[in-house]
Amino acid sequence: MNPHIEQNAAITRRQLFGRSAVGLGTAAIASLLNRDTNAASTYAGAGRVGGLPALPHFAPQAKRVIYLFMNGAPTHADLFDYKPALKAMHGQPVPESYLAGKRFSTMTGNATGKLMLAPVEPFRQYGESGAWVSDFMPHTAGVADDLCFIKSMHTEAVNHAPAITFFLTGSEMPGRPTMGAWLTYGLGSETDELPAFTVMTSISKDTSCGQIFYDFYWGSGFLPSRFQGVKFRGGGDPVLYLSSPDGMSREVRRGLLDDLAKLNEMQYEELGDPEIATRISQYEMAYKMQASVPELTDISQEPAHILDMYGPSVRERGTFAYNCLMARRLAERGVPFVQLMHAGWDQHNSITTELYNQCRDTDQPSAALVRDLKQRGMLEDTLVIWGGEFGRTPFIQGDINNRPRWGRDHHPYAFTIWMAGGGIKSGITYGESDDLAMNVAKDPVHVHDFQATLLYLLGIDHERLTFKHQGRRYRLTDVHGKVVRGVLA
User: Fold this and answer.
1) Which domain covers residue 230, as residue numbers?
2) Is the peptide bond before 394 cis (omega within 30 degrees of 0)?
């Protein structure tokens, strides 16, 4: 073998054979799933599957993440960021001083002369924290004291795919690992029966403003592809190619995998390509998932009051409510990163119609997930995140005299997300936008700051989790980011 290839291969032949002496099939399972109990640090515990020996860097406050990503960008001005001045200025031109140096999407272009749009529904204060929440979100309002609202988020991207990619990878350009891939690479998992990084997507019925779910939203980038997210589907087999062909028993499949492992090892010896390791690991994980996934997706034993808590669509596969319940079940079974993506928030001309549908489909399940985790004692070490790629303009897109077609354009300069559990301070609002919800006025939180904080809660120094690619060491936060201490419990 070429010494250079051998040095750079993710798994060497010595490692491959050294982890087991009872046959290549078993050795392949152990090494290709990166199982190494010696790699578990003091903080991670002895049961960790995979991960880097040096991680976590310090005691984590969160063991797992459930990211409720709202594709299309929810409108902060209508949901969480209450601004009386916005109501008072309804129908008036946006002050020019608020627009200096601002770049908007091509649908807005020059924002001069655009008219301010008041919130569609009224806001009220909730809980001991007094959090302002719109009537659009009554269930989220009910758990306001468990949440931390960050109202000073800001980003650079003004279009959906680059902005989503920026949140999930630290770069607007596709090709870098997503945060789920980074965490799987760095921390491994608590289970080898299910993928460490799982993804589910959904969209509200009859919406006209859906977003495309690109595979690179859960990709592994330049990391070995075994760290990419595994997508659970809303119909058919939960995972593609999981079922064996008709007439193939478990015993026959086991023998087939062992034989394939031998062939792949021969190819690995010749080429030294770490993706061969990925190929075997995918076969092995699929074999285990044939037993674990049916149990995971069988919700018949869930109590009726739990199902009712998630809402009427929880029994329908592929809905956001069903996916939220699956997220809790995955977290219970040791899956460390669950990414739910729900599209339909891109309301350029449907803020008075489709926003109601979006909130109806997502409000109750999101709040139920927080309640469910809390009553099981899991919220304290599960980090739940809710938010989109940017916000929406406080001024109108469209004709203010045609209310059924009111809309708002993309807005990266100030928007709101919320977080709960996993070391986050509950019942607080961090940061502020200005009086028109246009720009950050206090305690700005950039996307890289958000990423650094997420890693910190999982026991990772964001500057030290790196991967060398094409001569440079990359990290999730690129060369930026600082931990937002004000949101930590």
Assistant:
1) 54-235+317-487
2) no
State the Cα torsion 40-223-4-30 to the nearest 10°.
40
Of 393, 352, 355, whose CA–CA distance to 114 is shortest?
Answer: 393
| Collapsed DSSP state (helix, strand, coil) of residue 274 | helix
User: Alpha-carbon distance 172 to 174, whole Å?
Assistant: 7
Query: Which pLDDT score, from 0 to 100, does residue 154 have?
Result: 98
Provide the 8-state DSSP code for 463. T
Q: Could you give the CA distance from residue 188 to residue 33 in angstroms, rounded to a whole number?
A: 9
| pLDDT tens, residue by residue, 34-91 | 443 333 344 444 578 889 999 999 999 999 999 999 999 999 999 999 999 999 999 9
Total number of domains constituting the chain: 1
On whether residue 440 sits in a domain, the answer given is yes
Residue 488 carries which DSSP code?
B
Query: How many whole angstroms separate alpha carbon 319 and alpha carbon 302?
Result: 17
> 339 pairs with which residues across the strands?
67, 199
What is the secondary structure of 164-212 as a DSSP string? HHHHHHSSSSBTBPPHHHHHHHHH-BS-SSS-SEEEEEEE-TT-S----
Query: Is 312 a domain residue?
Result: no
Please state, in angstroms and as integers, the Cα–Cα distance from residue 21 to each residue in 14, 192, 251, following that order. Answer: 12, 20, 21
Closest by CA position to 194, among listed 335, 359, 65: 335
List the one residue out of 218, 198, 261, 263 whose CA is nearest residue 32. Answer: 261
**Dihedral angle at the C-alpha atoms of 313, 316, 321, 322, nearest 10 degrees?**
150
Q: Is 231 exposed, middle or buried (0-12, 13-18, 19+ CB in 10 A)?
A: buried
Q: Which residues are registered as beta bridge partners of 147?
A: 420
Please report where in the chains the tokens 């290549």 appear, as a residue. 24
- Is residue 56 reached through a cis peptide bond, with omega within 30 degrees of 0 on the bond before it? yes
CATH number of the domain enclosing 458: 3.40.720
For residue 381, the tally of other CB atoms under 10 A from its CB is 17
Q: Cα separation of 64 and 421, whole Å? A: 10
In a domain, 159, yes or no: yes
Two structure tokens written together for 364? 């109750």
- pLDDT band (50, 70, 90) for residue 235: confident
pLDDT digits (tens, 9 = 90+) for 188-232: 999 989 999 999 999 988 888 878 999 999 999 999 999 999 999
pLDDT of residue 111 exceeding 80, the answer is: yes
Residue 100 lies in a domain: yes
Q: Which two tokens stand for residue 218?
A: 């859960």
pTM value is: 0.87
Rounded to 5 degrees, what are φ and ψ at 410?
-65, 145
